[in-house]
Amino acid sequence: MIEIKGLTKKYGELFAIREINLSLQAGDVFGFIGPNGAGKTTTMRILATLLQPTWGEAYVAGHSIYTAPKDIRRAIGYMPDFFGVYDDMKVIEYLEFFAAAYRIRGEKRRKVCDDVLDLVDLGYKRDALVTSLSRGMTQRLGLARVLLHDPQVLLLDEPASGLDPRARIEIRALLKELRSMGKTIMVSSHILPELADVCNKIGIIERGELIVNADVADVMKQVRQQTVLKVAVAERDGKTLDGAAELLTGLPQVESVAPSSQPGAPLTVTLRAEAQDPSDIARALFEAGYALTLLKEDEINLETAFMTLTQGITS
Ligand SMILES: Nc1ncnc2c1ncn2[C@@H]1O[C@H](COP(=O)(O)OP(=O)(O)OP(=O)(O)O)[C@@H](O)[C@H]1O
After folding, report:
1. From the CB of 38, is ligand 1 less than 6 Å away?
2. Residue 202: helix, strand or coil by DSSP?
3. Are both 132 and 160 inside the same structural domain?
4. Which of 42, 148, 184, 187 maximizes the CB count within 10 A of its CB?
5. Over the stretch 95-113, which tens digit does the pLDDT of each residue have?
6. Is residue 103 in some structural domain?
7. ipTM strictly over 0.90?
């Protein structure tokens, strides 16, 4: 759906983006992470055929940015990081205006507008003035607008920037819904946690260069090759968590035991690479008379994974 090869944009001597390569399949949700000025907007504007690269190739939905920009515009929904809304227009009028621009006519137009409004949960603001909407609602209206012509590919430039926590959560839920509809999505942000649980692919861009470009699942595997467990026992009958830690440290399949960070918190037990079965741990504790209250695999979050993976690269 998106194929980029050696894409480069220069402004004078400055490389806004430099030799970017990227390949996204249908249904991929690509989180494009980078600090301000890293090159996210430049990349998206080139894909949206609003900006010419200095050199390099880019195809969207099978169409070249050089030879078929009109086909690309039909296939994409591009939401810029800042967009204006017209004053003294109602929400529904605003959408109908853009639907008309997409040549959606007659009864279908009203239906399409109502459908996208429902999708972004703004049906109840149908007759409100666009200028009366909160920033979160305005962003959702912007999303509704780019969905009018049912594009296969969405390019969303920082859709959650400047929103309060609740509105960010709403945008994330909406992205998940669009993902379940099979859309291919490129969504940018300058912070990773925002996109962590929405994307299946992540790219990190710094000073115009894509320094990480990976499948989320692969990153997880790469970062965590060992099993890490959270373990807790009941502190009674002379048995303590410290005693359990000592016992576990002596087991051959255990590589390390980190004490609990605060009173009552579980131990963090890392197994040796070849030992994957946590039931040995349960058995050893049980046989020594401990009452196990917690034994679960410690789930690594994407943020930690990427921090580990990019250590030293982004500093
Ligand atoms: N028209 C322009 N003329 C000169 N330099 C530009 C122009 N547009 C962008 N740049 C530069 O290109 C680089 C990349 O900018 P870009 O807007 O793509 O970054 P970004 O990752 O989208 O940042 P932000 O998160 O702030 O939107 C920056 O150094 C920027 O100053």
Report:
1. yes
2. strand
3. yes
4. 187
5. 999 999 889 988 899 999 9
6. yes
7. yes
